TrEMBL record:
Residues 20-96 form the Cytochrome b5 heme-binding domain. It is a multi-pass membrane protein. It is found in: Membrane. Signal peptide: none annotated. The gene is Cyb5b. InterPro entries: Aquaporin-like (IPR023271), Cyt_B5-like_heme/steroid-bd (IPR001199), Cyt_B5-like_heme/steroid_sf (IPR036400), Cyt_B5_heme-BS (IPR018506), Cytochrome_b5 (IPR050668). This is Cytochrome b5 type B. It comes from the Eukaryota.
């Protein structure tokens, strides 16, 4: 087993716990063989080397994901609560904060972007519409 690269706090020190060992993804990616198999599931790093031969879904599918983020494949299979419980015994640390996907942050930013436009567009379109209707009915009432 390789020496873990305990890399301390993240760039901004956010969310890093001194009790947790953090691994860079490049470090995880090196453990992609049957001799040493690590994988990432939901931002956590697992050393599943000794689990390979015990996996009910077979060794092959695990080796395909070795050294990588297997979150999607793990969830796609719809693993049971027992399987999730088993993960704990293979847990060795967390993905380094700098390597975490900024998925949720991106979502928040894109919602903000869309809504910030909506705040402008809705009143402007509304005002144009009201102006149009007003002129239309005003012209109608004048001509009759
Ligand atoms: C360390 C992580 C994993 C653990 C602890 C684990 C555990 C298990 C367990 C206990 C089962 C039996 C069914 C259940 O209880 O859900 C199972 C089935 C299975 N697993 Fe995993 N698994 C892991 C990762 C993966 C990954 C990354 C894949 C990728 C494709 C995978 C694919 C499957 C498949 C195909 C089955 C068979 C499902 C079936 O026959 O219905 N597993 N796994």
């Amino acid at each position: 087993m390789a020496t873990p690269e305990a890399s301390g706090s993240g760039r901004n020190g956010q969310g890093s716990d001194p009790a947790v060992t953090y691994y860079r993804l490049e470090e995880v990616a090196k453990r992609n063989t049957a001799e040493e198999t690590w994988m990432v599931i939901h931002g956590r790093v697992y050393d599943i080397t000794r689990f390979l031969s015990e996996h009910p879904g077979g060794e092959e599918v695990l080796l395909e994901q070795a050294g990588a983020d297997a979150t999607e494949s793990f969830e796609d299979v719809g693993h049971s609560p027992d399987a999730r419980e088993m993960l704990k015994q293979y847990y060795i640390g967390d993905v380094h904060p700098n390597d975490l996907k900024p998925k949720d942050g991106d979502k928040v930013r894109s919602y903000y972007f869309v809504f910030s436009w909506a705040y402008w567009i809705v009143p402007i379109v509304g005002a144009i519409l009201i102006g149009f209707l007003y002129r239309h009915f005003w012209a109608d009432s004048k001509s009759s």
